[in-house]
Amino acid sequence: MKTYLEIIAENMRIPKNSNVIVQFWGENKDKEALLSFSEVLKQNHMSVSSIMFDKNEMLKKCEEGPYSIFDQITEEELFHANIVIDLCTYSPTGLVALTHEKSRSNFIQFMRNHFNAITGPEKMMIQIRMPSFENASESGLSFEKYSRIYDKMIRVYYDEMRKRCKTLIEEYSAHKKVTIITGEQHVLTLDLTNRKWFQDSGEGDFPAGEIYIAPLENSANGSYKADFIFWEGEHIKDVVLKFENGKLVDSKPLHILEGLKKADANAIVIAEFGLGVNPQIFELTGYSLFDEKMAGSCHIAVGMNHLFGGENKSVAHVDFVSARPQITFS
User: Is the peptide bond before 215 cis (omega within 30 degrees of 0)?
Assistant: First the structure.
């Protein structure tokens, strides 16, 4: 049986002859996974470079001064890559909390500069959050349950899922507005005028399985109920979000709104509307990476959307999933 990394490598929508950088956010002891994954990509006629972001080494180097990756890769390789793949056994942004206060500015500056270098209109980014104890802990799931759901979602029929995504996008692209009814009384309207639909069936996150769009940033009005979310170490059911002119103005519980405001001023702006199409997940877990892909579900997000057709820049991007919405396009 093929490993999940072999399945992912075979089903990514990467053109041959691409210049690829694989970034491994893991530990040196797990470096074999990075090397084997890179070898599979090379077999598909790609130029592949790799970078190792060992957590302990990064924290140590940031304490010593401004951090640079150019001992692992050349500046030319970095800036000329058109495909960037993140293999993550931990959350890169989660390192901020582990960084000593005196060196935190070095780390934040490195992350900002590096992110700007690897993103852009001509670049494609794919993120693979690998089954690990750290990722499972961040999701609120046990490692065993995380790995079990992950494995099922990865072993999907990708060609069928891509056809489903294409069919839905063709159907919805003609419409300019969407009305989302969640629960018994929560109605949210969004304006999609002149915004483009995207599909994630091997082009973005893994596990894959959604179509999504950036609504006009001032267009969200009404309320929306998310069934289940894991938020700051707590499983919360029946979260209610209230929007006025595109901004989140109230939440139940209130500390969700308060937490978003602490990120930055743009973290409360509507960012995304999406629909799940992966038939291999059968229940909400509270972990948006899985839940937003569940076939039949919908999700909205607040925060960053400038990387997929929107205009809002933020350090945050938070998804809220509803399993059984009523959706009307007009």
Answer: no
